């Protein structure tokens, strides 16, 4: 196994010798003379390989087969990652080398494809959220949320408190706590009331200190309930705080009034639901869209329209003085690499589905979730929250949610996410997500299995 | 002197008339009422009226001006757009510090296996044992490559890794009684280093490089005190020069209780040849989209795992992946001193799958050959071009070489012009005007993926441009001449930004 693999490294021994001659040294090892001998690896690293493609397939297929996939079972898992329809042509187009193997478009004359696609992506984001300026993408929903909060704090300068709904995705909130731990930002969390929406009285109390720079709610929230943007916005507005909307289920924008229409300042979220594979949690695409006056405070890249020396319309990275490669320690964010390829995928998805399709996907999600809710209540589950929902909702039963999940797994159903994973006071609550990929048969058999699981307990 | 320019332009004009039917419009400009690019199954549950499902105040109107296009329109549009990009599959893409190497297609195939692509992060652990095992194997492999005892896979980019690493340093120092105030960063560093350190709660002190382009040990000795939390250093640095006193550097920091952070963006220069942990580096990120061949995708996604020394292990982000005695794997949240998670779920899993695929394909002998040939290729370019371009630092370099435009500037031709002219020869330009310590820098990193012929073609192009700078400088100054668009008015884009398309009313 001492013969190194050559398929990705074209130069063979003859080339190496010719090149050494031009350089004027006699061995490749001489090139590493500046590395102290004391830190050089003796022999080879102790790692497996090299493997041929045949062995790679064999080895990784063995791993892949150990997983239960969303294709093997009927899944009602959501919680920030949704299994939606993926148009076939998107992945084919993503594999085009000109997109896949290009770098960040710093040289616009040879990167117009990427630049124009980002400009289109930005346009889709603005249309969907009802806001003015979108950036070229962030890592994911959780870090987009964090960047939204950090941006709001920059705008507000002296204020130190951010009030966030406890019904924002628990892992998003945890990510926020990690990021701000040394920045002197105080996070105040506000719970929910019987309708599953943010507790407005508590929100008012939390904001009532002249120190709150932003209020953030997720809608639909982690319990599945759609928040009342206007009511939240009124309280945040009178406290002089910026209003941040978090969207973890991006297809909801196909049917729900967008944050921009409710005078929210910042929308951040996760674009995975726009046809990206669940992929065990990533890579996805985080988005951020803001009101126009905030644009120079934004993190990440922005693509703008301009002309070339011949007057032709063209696109270029712009307002870069916000960014780390120019502003360094004073940049609006440390972000450099983003999720450009998946911003491109989102652009393709949004273009293909378009005006009618985005609404139809969202409407089907809404209709099917409503049908399943009715079926599950008939099966003996209750709905602990009375607020309006989109495609995801919480059910409560007489049994611990983990037991329901274990029992339905035997029937090839992934029943949902036990909320006890995130909230210790909700042992019997299960978070259930429905998409347009579910058939009536899936929904009926799910309800029947829940009924059976509850009946068994009762008997 | 203007004649060559015009003749090229005429030729280009003619070419574009015959090959392209004008410019590719925006996807929104292809939109026509009634077109559709999708079809869903008919709704198979009893249909309710929407207003029975949701209050009217929550229902949006139709999304004004959104697309109405067919699949054909979409495929044509994006295929045409793709043709406007340079890419590593088409030619050498010698961006310094970016490691634009070949992206093996087996990586893409493996990441798309349904077992990986269609698994959900919140499935019960016994259903995703294959994923957890893969993450565990990747950590074992990176531990060996880094020479460090643990690696977190959660960060999804280099800068994300930097932030994660410095947050761990902060927490470790705070626990020891003093989080300290400053991070030292050489003036040759990537911009993300100071930005990340700032977001981790530190102030920055910049260290001036010495005449070799490396760190001055006397200066370091003077600057390191009980207020300094860490030094962030890139190895080899952004000139491609290895800090040959790295062991002493680590020692100076450790004596004062400070940490040594390594920006691993340039790991391709020494992967399999030397290990950061053995050099005294305490914490380091590696950009898997550089050294480990995952595609850059026009700017992402990436992955930036962070290796840490034993004293930082308690502070790693949660969860980590652990193995039980019975051979099963689980997500380990039991790190009471953790800095917390830095992202939802477990990182860019799909990128991690690709990177491990590459590590297995290469094995230890392959990874070592990567470093050897990457360094050989860079030194070959250096040897061929040093007669024509100024080498501001002549210290031996590893995987990249930095020239400047000093000679060409005498003819009033500058780095930007040279970069643009390279496009006419079919090459993406090198990184330009970076590192900041070199005026008019041209930073060239060929990687091990390039055959000698490609390197020769590139060198011939660079030499031809050097001649043009002498003989027909206007040709270079007005370049590019053959690209889909000419130089852009970047000032106009920033002055009155147009950041989205709007329908003409």
Report on this model:
Chain A is an alpha/beta fold and 459 residues long. Chain A has helices at residues 13-23, 53-64, 88-94, 97-100, 112-129, 141-156, 170-180, 200-207, 229-238, 324-327, 340-378, 401-409, 440-458; strands at 74-75, 133-134, 161-165, 186-190, 212-218, 242-247, 266-270, 286-290, 302-307, 313-318, 392-396, 413-414, 417-418, 429-433. In chain A, strands 2-8-7-6-5-3-4 form a seven-stranded mixed β-sheet, sandwiched between helices. In chain A, strands 11-14-13 form a three-stranded antiparallel β-sheet, with helices on one face. In chain A, strands 1-12 form a two-stranded parallel sheet. The relative contact order of chain A is 0.14. Helices cover 38% and strands 10% of the residues of chain B. In chain B, the strands form three sheets. In chain B, strands 1-7-6-5-4-2-3 form a seven-stranded mixed β-sheet, with helices on both faces. The radius of gyration of chain B is 26 Å and the shape is globular. Chain B starts with a helix and ends in a 10-residue tail after the last helix. Residues 1-5 and 14-21 of chain B have low confidence and may be disordered. The chains are: A alpha/beta (459), B alpha/beta (505). At the A-B interface, α1, α2, α3, α4 and α5 of A face α3, α4, α5, α6 and α7 of B.
The gist of it:
Chain A has 459 residues and is α/β, with parallel strands linked by helices. Chain A is built from 13 helices and 14 strands.
Number of strands of chain A: 14
Mean pLDDT of chain A: 96
What value does the average pLDDT of chain B take? 95
Shape assignment of chain B: globular
According to DSSP, the number of beta strands of chain B is 12
Largest sheet of chain A: 7 strands, mixed
Order of helices and strands of chain B: HHHHHHEHEHEHEHEEHEEEHEHHEEHHH
CA-based shape of chain A: globular
Biggest interchain interface, per-side counts: A-B, 203 and 203 residues
């Amino acid at each position: 196994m001492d013969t190194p693999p050559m398929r990705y490294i074209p130069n063979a021994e003859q080339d190496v010798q010719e090149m050494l001659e031009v350089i004027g040294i006699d061995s490749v090892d001489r090139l590493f003379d500046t590395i102290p001998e004391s830190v050089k690896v003796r022999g080879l690293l102790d790692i497996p390989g090299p493997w041929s493609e045949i062995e790679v397939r064999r080895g990784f297929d063995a791993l892949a087969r150990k997983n239960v996939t969303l294709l093997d079972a009927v899944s009602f898992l959501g919680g920030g990652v949704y299994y939606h329809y993926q148009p076939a042509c998107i992945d084919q187009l993503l594999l085009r080398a000109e997109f896949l193997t290009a770098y960040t478009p710093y040289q616009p004359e040879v990167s117009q494809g990427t630049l124009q696609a980002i400009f289109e992506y930005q346009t889709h984001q603005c249309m969907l959220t009802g806001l003015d300026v979108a950036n070229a993408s962030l890592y994911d929903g959780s870090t987009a949320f964090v960047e939204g909060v950090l941006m709001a704090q920059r705008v507000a300068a002296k204020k130190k408190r951010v009030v966030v709904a406890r019904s924002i995705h628990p892992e998003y909130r945890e990510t926020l706590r990690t990021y701000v731990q040394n920045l002197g930002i105080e996070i105040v969390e506000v719970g929910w009331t019987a309708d599953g929406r943010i507790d407005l009285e508590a929100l008012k109390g939390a904001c009532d200190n002249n120190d709150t720079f932003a209020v953030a709610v997720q809608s639909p929230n982690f319990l599945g309930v759609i928040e009342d943007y206007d009511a939240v916005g009124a309280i945040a507005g009178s406290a002089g705080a910026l209003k941040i909307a978090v969207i973890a289920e991006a297809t909801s924008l196909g049917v729900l009034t967008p944050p921009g229409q409710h005078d929210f300042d910042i929308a951040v979220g996760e674009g995975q639901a726009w046809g990206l594979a669940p992929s065990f949690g990533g890579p996805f695409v985080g988005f951020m869209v803001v009101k126009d006056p905030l644009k120079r405070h934004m993190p990440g890249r922005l693509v703008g329209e301009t002309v070339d020396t011949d007057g032709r319309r063209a696109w270029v990275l712009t307002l870069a003085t916000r960014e780390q490669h120019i502003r360094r320690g004073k940049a609006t964010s440390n972000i450099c690499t983003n999720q450009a390829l998946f911003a491109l995928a989102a652009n393709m998805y949004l273009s293909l589905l378009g005006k009618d399709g985005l609404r139809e996907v969202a409407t089907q999600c809404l209709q099917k979730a409503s049908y399943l809710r009715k079926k599950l209540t008939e099966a003996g589950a209750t709905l602990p929250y009375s607020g309006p929902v989109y495609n995801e909702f919480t059910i409560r039963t007489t049994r611990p949610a983990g037991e329901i999940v274990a029992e339905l797994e035997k029937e090839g159903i992934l029943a949902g996410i036990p909320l006890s994973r995130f909230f210790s006071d909700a042992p019997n609550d299960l978070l259930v997500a429905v998409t347009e990929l579910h058939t009536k048969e899936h929904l009926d058999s799910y309800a029947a299995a829940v009924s059976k699981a509850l009946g068994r307990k009762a008997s | 002197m203007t004649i060559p320019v015009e003749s090229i332009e005429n030729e280009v004009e003619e070419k574009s008339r015959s090959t392209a039917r004008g410019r590719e419009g925006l996807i929104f400009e292809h939109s026509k009422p009634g077109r559709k690019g999708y079809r869903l199954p008919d709704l198979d549950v009893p249909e309710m009226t929407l207003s029975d499902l949701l209050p009217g105040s929550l229902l949006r109107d139709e999304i004004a001006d959104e697309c109405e296009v067919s699949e054909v329109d979409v495929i044509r549009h994006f295929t045409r757009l793709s043709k406007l990009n340079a890419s590593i599959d088409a030619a050498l893409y010698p961006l310094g510090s970016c490691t634009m190497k070949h992206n093996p297609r087996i990586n893409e195939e493996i990441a798309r296996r349904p077992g990986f692509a269609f698994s959900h992060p919140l499935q019960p652990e016994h259903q995703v044992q294959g994923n957890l095992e893969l993450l565990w194997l990747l950590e074992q492999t990176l531990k060996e490559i880094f020479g460090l005892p643990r690696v977190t896979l959660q960060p999804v980019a280099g800068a994300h890794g930097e932030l994660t690493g410095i947050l761990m340093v902060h927490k470790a120092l705070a626990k020891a009684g003093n989080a300290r105030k400053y991070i030292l960063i050489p003036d040759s560093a990537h911009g993300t280093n100071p930005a990340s350190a700032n977001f981790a709660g530190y102030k920055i002190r910049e260290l001036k490089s010495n005449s070799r382009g490396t760190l001055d040990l006397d200066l370091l000795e003077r600057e390191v005190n009980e207020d300094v939390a860490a030094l962030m250093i890139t190895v080899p640095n952004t000139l491609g020069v290895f800090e040959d006193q790295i062991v002493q550097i680590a020692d100076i920091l450790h004596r004062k209780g400070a940490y040594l952070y390594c920006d691993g963006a340039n790991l391709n220069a020494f992967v399999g040849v030397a290990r950061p942990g053995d050099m005294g580096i305490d914490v380091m990120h590696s950009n898997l989209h550089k050294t480990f061949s995952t595609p850059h995708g026009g700017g992402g996604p990436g992955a930036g795992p962070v290796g840490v020394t034993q004293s930082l292990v308690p502070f790693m982000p949660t969860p980590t992946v652990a193995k039980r005695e019975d051979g099963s794997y689980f997500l380990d949240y039991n790190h009471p001193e953790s800095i917390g998670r830095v992202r939802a779920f477990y990182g860019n899993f799909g990128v991690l799958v690709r990177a491990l695929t590459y590590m297995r394909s290469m094995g230890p002998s392959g990874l070592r050959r990567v470093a050897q040939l990457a360094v050989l290729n860079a030194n070959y370019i250096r040897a061929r071009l040093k007669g024509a371009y100024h080498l501001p630092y002549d210290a031996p370099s590893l995987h990249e070489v930095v020239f400047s435009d000093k000679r060409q500037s005498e003819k009033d031709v500058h780095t930007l012009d040279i970069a643009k002219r390279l496009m006419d020869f079919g090459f993406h330009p090198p990184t330009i005007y970076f590192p900041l310590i070199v005026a008019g820098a041209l930073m060239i990193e060929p990687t091990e993926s390039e055959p000698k012929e490609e390197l020769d073609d590139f060198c011939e192009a660079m030499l031809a441009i050097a001649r043009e700078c002498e003989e027909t400088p206007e040709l270079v100054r007005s370049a590019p001449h053959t690209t889909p668009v000419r130089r852009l008015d970047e000032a106009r884009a920033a002055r009155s930004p147009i950041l989205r398309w709007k329908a003409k009313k």
